[in-house]
Design brief:
This protein has nine helices and 19 strands. By secondary structure, the protein is an alpha/beta fold. Strands 4-3-5-6-7-8-9 form a seven-stranded mixed beta sheet, with helices on both faces. Strands 10, 11, 12, 13 and 14 form a five-stranded antiparallel beta sheet that branches. Helix 2 links the parallel strand 3 and strand 4. Helix 4 crosses helix 5. It starts with 6 loop residues before the first strand and ends with a helix.
Length: 353
């Protein structure tokens, strides 16, 4: 029989900011992660999860499927995600929860009235794999009448690291909740091993039995990724006094405009609050004068134009953060798992590409 330390699953990182790396996960890694997820969401044999995420990544596989099966619960696996039959599936199978990327939540919201979606639906709705803007969080809770729990996961941690607590715990939009079965700390940005104080921004680091032992055949990446036993996630963020984690962005995606560091997540969140904007992503574009400037791409749900959106941004954020250019498009390029890769946006939208 296999031992706890034998490799059970070999995956690759999503390559959001760099080339994908091989991640061997052991039986012990997976079982710890499954147990963390099952325990946190209080999953039981009474639960049924609708699977809308691909099973070839940890979100769909660990976050929604194996955790449910381990609890004795049931899965509903449609051939592909379809907003038009989602609520019929929920009703027919008495589904109690689903987990998805923000894109899917937004599609369900946009189609909710058209599809006669119920105003009271799931025991909870989980969001993971990219940032859920507070405006979308509030719309989801209000429309579907379910608590929305935002989680934070990555392949190297066999998926989940933190999540909003289950009710009656406090859900704070814009945070990814508290650590779930792992240790989370904030390290200085130089990664010298110095851990930051509460409220101070730095790199999110983790420790736990669900964390991989190292990348496959990549000693250079391993030497860089582990400091004093902590795994460096590559995400910037801070912890509050109650242990709630706020992410300010991927470190490699921060926009450096003339020395001012700008969090793309902050700008995305403000753009998504605009009543005519359905989807938004901002990104760095090389610039002779400032080094980098902010551009953004948006998908609209009602009439507006670039000038109106830029004026709105000027009222909501410091002038140096306002996108120099806003591209209005029919759709944003995504990966197979629904993630937006900022590093591909320059190529997709600007002449520099």
């Amino acid at each position: 029989p296999p031992s706890e330390e034998d490799v059970a699953l070999f995956l690759h990182t999503s390559g959001t900011t760099s080339r994908p790396k091989g991640v061997p996960l052991t039986h012990a890694n997976l079982m710890k992660s499954i147990d963390n997820i099952k325990t946190h969401y209080e999953l039981t044999p009474e639960d049924t999860s609708i699977i809308v995420m691909p099973l070839f990544h940890v979100h769909g596989l660990m976050g929604a499927s194996l955790s449910t099966l381990n609890s004795g619960g049931s899965l509903v696996i449609p051939p592909r995600f379809s907003a038009s039959n989602f609520w019929e599936l929920q009703k027919t199978n008495s589904a109690t929860w689903y987990s998805a990327v923000p894109t899917i939540h937004q599609i369900l919201l946009m189609r909710a009235d058209e599809e006669n979606a119920p105003h009271e639906s799931f025991r909870f709705i989980r969001s993971c794999s990219s940032a859920l803007a507070p405006a979308v969080f509030e719309r989801l809770e209000n429309r579907f009448g379910s608590p929305v729990l935002e989680a934070y996961g990555m392949t190297e941690a066999s998926h989940q690291m933190s999540s909003s607590p289950m009710p009656p715990g406090k859900r704070i939009p814009g945070t990814v909740g508290q650590a779930t079965g792992v240790d989370i700390a904030i390290m200085d940005m130089e990664a010298t091993g110095k851990l930051q104080n509460t409220g101070d921004i730095g790199e999110v680091v983790i420790k736990g039995d669900n964390v991989m032992h190292g990348y496959n055949n990549n000693p250079e990446a391993n030497a860089e990724s582990f400091v004093n036993g902590w795994f460096r996630t590559g995400d910037q963020g801070f912890l509050d006094s109650e242990g709630y984690l706020s992410l300010t962005g991927r470190i490699k995606e921060l926009i450096n405009r003339g020395g001012e560091k700008i969090s793309p997540l902050e700008i995305d969140g403000i753009l998504l609050k605009h009543p005519a904007v359905a989807e938004a992503v901002c990104f760095a574009v090389p610039d002779e004068k400032y080094g980098e400037v902010v551009h953004a791409a948006v998908v609209l749900k009602s009439e507006t134009d670039e000038d109106a959106i830029r004026t709105y941004c000027g009222d909501e954020m410091a002038s140096f953060k306002v996108p120099d250019t806003i591209y209005i498009t029919d759709k944003l390029p995504r990966t197979a798992t629904g993630k937006i890769q900022r590093r591909h946006m320059v190529e997709a939208f600007t002449k520099l590409g």
